[in-house]
Amino acid sequence: MSDKKPAGTRTARFPASLEGRAPAPAMTAPGVLRPQRLLHEVAQDAARQVAPRGLGLDSAPVRQRMVQRLRSDGVRCEPVLTAMGHVPRHEFVDTALVAQAYEDTSLPIGLSQTISKPSVVARMIEWLYLGEAARQRGHLGRVLEIGTGCGYQAAVLAHLSTQVISVERLKALHELAARHLHRLQVPRCRLVYGDGMRGHPPNAPYDTIIAAAGGEDLPGSWLDQLAVGGRLVAPARSNDGRGQVLVIVDRTPDGWHRSFGEAVQFVPLKSGTH
Ligand code: SAH
Fold first, then answer.
1. 79 CA to middle of ligand 1, Å?
2. What count of other Cβ atoms lies within 10 Å of the Cβ of residue 17?
3. Residues recognised as catalytic
4. Is 260 in contact with 247 (CB distance < 8 Å)?
5. What tens digit of pLDDT does each residue of 77-108 get?
6. Contact assessment for residue 254 and residue 225, using Cβ atoms and an 8 Å cutoff
7. Which residue has the higher pLDDT, 98 or 30?
8. Which of 14, 42, 65, 136 has the lowest tally of Cβ within 10 angstroms?
9. Does ligand 1 come within 6 angstroms of the Cβ of 261?
10. pTM, full prediction
11. 260: containing domain
């Protein structure tokens, strides 16, 4: 991220410590949070018998079991858990993968991209919720999502916000997500085909910004388009040698305050459209 301040601001303090700001919820798991999952771990999950005998693999009780597991893994934010209990993740994946839809695993959505693990989706949205303004309002306000993918996370965000603007650089995925969200009649979501590295100026400023792809640094446009009082959560390279981490940026009247969350491994943020 460029530490260059947009005009009209006073100070930017980087990095701000995590302590003394939003209370950090318990870590969902030690070590690196991977939106993608190793195959042997997927097999372990399958062995945990997510679906009890007699239940359809795509049924609401199976989804509730996923929510229970998120809760026991440390996700504390009830609105996030409720939203994830509502969104039918199996509707966003290929029919051949429906049986795995509620395991804590990433799944292929085509074009070498993946739908993120439920625990990573929950954790990132929880970080957004812990921002000052979102905590006070009780919702995420107007959200900018970078990396629509299949539209699953956008659908979860739609339950928690007044409007979701979601940008995807791959046309085929943009269209796939549009089909999913239309079929499920997800409200308050506007999908944009374009290069999310530029954010989406027409609807700025955003109360919350979330990215599902990570680069070396945060594009300056995202910082510019974050409202004062808003919070951004995105993967980016840490400056302490930990590799890619979740970066949390709070914008106050004083400027931008950056803190760091868990180590993560996201797909690369790429420029241009395809
Ligand atoms: N949240 C998604 C997961 C998306 S995976 C879901 O629920 O399915 C990350 C996505 O980011 C990919 O679809 C990839 O194409 C997209 N992406 C990467 N760089 C981008 C950019 N500059 N602008 C918009 N999307 C981008």
1. 24
2. 11
3. 116
4. yes
5. 999 999 999 999 999 999 999 999 999 999 99
6. no
7. 98
8. 136
9. no
10. 0.83
11. 39-264
